[in-house]
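Appendix B, Record 12. Input sequence as logged:
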Amino acid sequence: MAAKRTDSDTVKTTVELPGELWRAAKIRAMDERADLRTVLIRALENYLRDSEPERPARTSSRSR
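Logged structural output:
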């Protein structure tokens, strides 16, 4: 399933990736007949769905 793109809900960004990681992802995307953009969107969706956000421990600033 390819991600649908419209101008109103997309953001263009630049990310620096290790070359070997980029090449491996690009090759796998081509093998699956997908573009790298779709692979990255799927990966981010899975990351956000499957992980709990890390929150810093709360510290009290009040004096007792």
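Residues 19 and 25 are 10 Å apart (CA to CA).
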